[in-house]
Amino acid sequence: MFYVSVPSNHISLLYVDDEPELLELGKLFLEKSGQFHVDTITSAQEALRILKTTSYDAIVSDYQMPDMDGIAFLKEIRAEFPDLPFIIFTGKGREEVAIEAFDNGADFYLQKGGTPTPQFLELGHKIIAAVRRKQAEKALQDSETRYRNVVEDQTEFISRFLPNGTHVFVNVAYCRYFKKSRDEIIGKKFKPDIPQEDTNLVRDHFLSLTKENPIASIDHRIIMPDGKFRWQRWSDRAIFNDGGALIEYQSVGRDITETKRNEEDLLLKNIELQAAYEQLAATEEELRSSYDNLAESQRSLEDKEITLNAILLESPIPQFVIDRDHKILYWNHALAAQSGIMAHEVTGTDQQWRAFYPSGRPCLADLLVDESLDTIPEWYADKYAKFTLIDNAYEVTDFFPQMGKAGKWLHFTAGLIKNRNGDIIGAVESLEDITDRKTTELNLRKMNDELHAAYEQLTATEEELRSSYDDLVKSRHALQESEDRYRNVVEDQTEFICRFKPDGTHNFVNYAYCRHFGMQRLELIGQRFIPEIPKEDRGLLRSYFASLTGEHPVGTIEHRIILPDGSVRWHQWSDRAIFDENGTLVEYQSVGRDITDWKTVELDLRKKNDELRRAFEQCSSH
Prior knowledge:
The structure is a single chain. 43% of the residues lie in helices and 23% in strands. By secondary structure, it is α+β, with helices and mostly antiparallel strands. It folds into 4 domains: 11-149, 3-Layer(aba) Sandwich (Rossmann fold), CATH 3.40.50.2300; 157-255, Beta-Lactamase, CATH 3.30.450.20; 319-437, Beta-Lactamase (2-Layer Sandwich); 496-601, 2-Layer Sandwich (Beta-Lactamase), CATH 3.30.450.20. The protein has a 6-stranded antiparallel beta sheet. Strands 2-1-3-4-5 form a 5-stranded parallel beta sheet, with helices on both faces. A hairpin with a 5-residue loop joins β17 (496-500) and β18 (506-509). The N and C termini lie far apart (91 Å). Mean pLDDT is 84; it is low at 1-7, 304-315 and 482-493.
């Protein structure tokens, strides 16, 4: 295919006409504007020979020429260069000539005659329009191909289907999960087998999607072909036409079976912990001192679990995408915030290593793109493993001493992106900062040593109390195991993203932000918008933003807001203050999420801890 290139200073043009005087006149007028470089030739056959070695941005040709006329010349060009702009510029004004020109792929048909200046000025406009239109078409095709490849290689299940269940699109992950080919699903009424207990829940979920509230999420079970039950989480959007009629659904899902199992285990362990505390209240006076120390350790462990829960409520996972030549295509905001490297600094380069290493070396995504799987141990030793859910994907956990003040632990995964033919066209790599998780593990080991010492002290007590002590120690281990499992559960929420000036004027908001506050993008962009804050939280918020300086530009805060319907919700925001080269504050970038459900759980847990503490203190006073 002929590649169209439009330089910023001029357009290269081949002008074909059997009248040399007209060629010279046209070349003079067009090149005088400074926008064109024109080569002229008097024969279409000679033009075809030149095109075998020379590329042009466009061709202008006469219609009536000896040996080969303009239409025959156009047919030859379209067979060899289907995307090359071609304009018929002729003195023949017959309607049938124009129709034949357009039928064979001419971009424009322009008739000679009249004053040269406006005639060649119009010709110049037609050439520019044709070239830029071809350039835009190619850019759109490239963008569509890149977007389609990224969607196809996501790990989430993506589908679009009609209200009657007929599927019109599914990605590779969807087909792989349900073990069906795309031909078995597209155009068919495919519906996964859902347990009877969840049927009404799913039905009510889809009935709740309206034109005013078209988006919602749901967790439910499905029955796999092998009879096993799996949990899924789906985010669904109902699509309506201008008349308000439902025409289609778009769904994005993922398997959350392990998350659900861990939640059930956590609830069971909490029940066991409460039973252990009730049994502890029956112990004798001589063990009170030992029990006090052990209970204090127990409360500290619970505080650590609450802290870990807060750590899990992070911003979106940092991620970048490279092409087949290792050039960066995408560098998301989360990675920019974590690495301090803005997207415009590295996009289009092969410097993805800068986010992790002090000098150039291949990242995990680079090794996958080169299919150098046998060299992964050379770079990552025993720190890597194959990703279990996706073919040709790997994960690595490693320590990076040069990051931060004391180094950071990162867990990152990488997978290939392929086109429809199965050819590798790039790779995507995601990373997660697990330094807090590693620190918590070290703290747990320390607390385990302290509890072990307490256990050794309690072994000297009477035989009748050993059973109670053993149960309490077991509950401590159960809580630790619960925390370990919970640490691996990462909730994928839809964050609210905005950028605004110090006076509150917004210059960017994403769709999740608009949907949450019930406003349109045009109502926010360029406007001063500040959500209503409860009076009790306003001082905290003012102090928080005042604390963001050039030396410490990043911070996180949790506070309440009052929505337009009067309801009070808890938010968690991660904010970055942006300063110019003179140190003047020019903008804020914020990523937020609704944490009301987490706050409710946290308050319930604190309430239960207070009740257990009072029960223990009452026991200790007897």
